[in-house]
Amino acid sequence: MNLKIFSPKDFPAYLPKLNSLYDDLFAGGKGFRSKLVQMVSNPLGLPAETQQLLCQTIEFIHNASLLHDDLIDRSQLRRGKPAAWTKYTPEYAVLAGDYLLARVMVNLSGFGNIKLVQFTSETISDLLEGEWLQDSVVGDFFVSLEQLDRIHNLKTASLFKWCLRAPFIAANNNDEELHRTLDEMGTILGQLFQRSDDLLDYNIRNDEGKAILGDLKSGYLNSFGAYVSRGMSRTQIDQMVKSSSLEDYYQCFANGEKDFQGFVQSFDATNEKMIQLYDHHLVNLEKKIQKPELIKSLKPLTEILYWRRKPKSS
Amino acid sequence: MSSFITLKKQDSDFQNYLWGKFSSTERALPMTTLNLESPEETVTFEIVKKSDIKRPSAAITFFALIKFQNLFLILLPLFYVLAKNFVDNRFRDPFTCVIASAAMLFLFAAFNIRNDVNDHISGYDRVNIPPRGQYAKPIKEGWITASQASNISWILTLIAMVLSFPVMLRQPEEARVIAISAVLIIAGRLLSKNSYKNQHWGEVIFFILAGPGVVSGYQVALGAGVDTEGLAFGILWAWGIQFLVHLNNFSHILTSSQAGIKNTMTNAGFDKAKKILIFWWAAFIGLWIAYHYFYASIFWSYLTTIVLVFWSVPTFMKITEIQSPVGSELGDLKKVGYRNFLLMCGLIVIEFYWYLGNKNDWFI
Asked: pLDDT value at position B131?
């Protein structure tokens, strides 16, 4: 599926650097969100063109957020390559992000579903609020997990909610109860994805080789960091902040790595409860819509997103 | 394996689950709430066996329910009234004052429990979740159901009412104070959906009751009658308590705003709310100076004001420095502000202890 061009006016060739910036940015992505959109759209019988529009929308929003995020965080790398703002200048990175969001609005409004336009605008707004709030807690090493959840709900979960709800809106199914259930499910998926991603920072299930303690070194206490530091003294937290490697980090605990692994287990148990809550909403969803294939494809998402393993084939 | 149930406000069982009346062996703990304060409100409850909930002793649950740590909010005005009237030789009816104070304690406990019940039913405590370990909410934790807590609150209110009868018989003027308070309480219930701390008029009513109301009640019970000095102290006291309420609401500004809860802080927004907090405490210091100018000795006016201003600097700095409506600084600010308030209470105690000592020649 060509996500770059939905309308002939997308990405005009006369604009310098825009196309290569786009190609660099999208090349390394897994496109998970657009796959999720397709997963929901297919059982609903949405036409291929509508699916393409929805997939482009979510990938454009996501990548616009990455362009801006990298600049805000001064991240040098994105998907193993130089971040756009370092390669193409910060000005072009900002403009490219804005351009992606503008194209989303142009193409979506052309589709003619005002509810979808409104919902997408709200999602972008939530995303920006989350980004704004996250920036306000950089350097705060005493932030709580509950407080971070609020940020992640806006910044990360908003896109998952969009992936689940937008295909239904595009299919003109605006049943409020249905959307509430999807909203809850999207929130949980977003939180689980974020928490799993945060665990990578501590080399837990880190098959993709994400940089160790990257968040901590950038002054950001992520969800697992907040979970671990709940009962820590100020001295322990000071020591934690200064950690340059996992070995240093383990020294923050009385029994070193053993205590750390205990925290990982209890964090997993906490999130397991969230997975149970997701399954509860899935049962509710099944009662509301007669789409067994959709339920079947949504069921293993928690396994993929949190545990980062392929679901067992049934 | 946990079990869950999702209910809408329109569902017939919704209230039963919220009040904890759906089962005698299980508790429904709210997990998530959507569309708070709307007919579409939806709550997902986790159903937990009563026996699986780790509950503290009944005494700890009761003290957490009545917010024992806040008892000084009514005890300090009592100390003020006793000391002031003793010094002024208007200590006319100590027996009635003792009964009125007991009634006040029961009423205070009842109000705090009612506040928790209201927060639970309205959803305030479901969206404004404090970080773990900050303070316990017995209803939310499942130690007690909202229905049981409500019953305890009614019993305590009833005891307070019974105790108020002899007070009214001995001091008929007390009936007027109680009548005015009752009207304000009922008006507050009708006006503010989320308890007195969450709506404009609710805040005003709370202000009147917590300050001038409490002080006047004690004064009348003592047989000293309402006077301007007592009212001035009541206003000063209420202004200080309202600062704590604003601080608490400020610490929840993000979640309250998202849930559509209205109060002075959410209406002002983060940046303006900070200015309001600074203004509020600065105005408190102004009221403190004014009260001391009219009713206290010059020595204590200067000494307490200097200490209060000096001690308020960290509070002003913390408010100015706070950058995020969601980070840990919010909790720190609450602690600093609360400490500042406690110091002010300490100053009042020392100052009035001095007046008592002076009258009785304790220090000679």
From this structure: 60
Copy the structure tokens of residue B77.
């005005």
Instruction: Check if the beta carbon of residue B46 is closer than 8 Å to that of residue B4.
Output: yes
Q: Which residues pair with A23 in a beta bridge?
A: none
Give the residue numbers spanning the domain of B215.
Answer: 58-280
* B280, B310, B336 - which closes a domain: B280
Nearest CA of chain B to the CA of A291: how many Å?
21
Same domain, B136 and B210: yes
Give the pLDDT mean for A239-257: 91
B104 and B29 assigned to the same domain: no
- Which of A147, A183, A273 has the CB atom closest to B327's CB atom? A147
Are residues B40 and B94 both part of a single domain?
A: no
pLDDT in tens, B181-211: 888 888 777 765 555 666 667 888 889 989 9
C-alpha distances (whole Å) from B156 to each of B146, B150, B153 are 15, 10, 5
Intrachain domains A1-112 and A139-314 with the same fold: yes
Give per-residue pLDDT as tens, A52-87: 999 999 999 999 999 998 898 888 878 778 888 999
- Return the structure tokens found at A181: 């259930």
Kindly report the three-state secondary structure assignment for every residue of B208-261.
Answer: HHHHHHHHHHHHHHCCCCCCHHHHHHHHHHHHHHHHHHHHHHHHCHHHHHHCCC
What are the pLDDT digits (tens) for B285-311? Answer: 999 999 999 999 899 999 999 999 999
Cβ distance of A187 and B4 shorter than 8 Å: no
In a domain, residue B161? The reply is: yes
Tens-place pLDDT, residues A177-223: 999 999 999 999 999 999 999 999 999 998 877 788 988 988 889 99
Query: Which of B2, B34, B254 lies closest to A183 in CB terms?
Result: B34
Instruction: Test A277 with B132 for CB contact under 8 angstroms.
Output: no
Q: Where are the domains of chain A?
A: 1-112, 139-314
B136 shares its domain with B24: no
Q: How far is CA A280 from the centre of its chain?
A: 22
Taking only the tens place, the pLDDT of each residue in B321-351 is: 999 999 899 999 999 999 999 999 999 999 9
ipTM: 0.84
Mean pLDDT of all residues belonging to chain B: 89
Fold classified for A139-314: Farnesyl Diphosphate Synthase (1.10.600)
Fold of A1-112: Farnesyl Diphosphate Synthase (1.10.600)
| A184 contacts B132? CB cut-off 8 A | no
Give residue B132's pLDDT. Answer: 55
Single pTM value for the model:
0.88
What's the structural domain count of chain B? Answer: 2
Domain match, B221 and B267 both: yes
Which residue out of B270, B328, B333 would a mutagenesis test of the A interface target, given it has the greatest number of A Cβ atoms within 10 Å? B328
A117 backbone φψ class: left, alpha, beta (φ>0; ψ -120 to 50): alpha
8 A C-beta contact, residue B147 and residue B22: no
> Is B151 inside a domain boundary?
yes
Residues B141 and B227 in one domain: yes
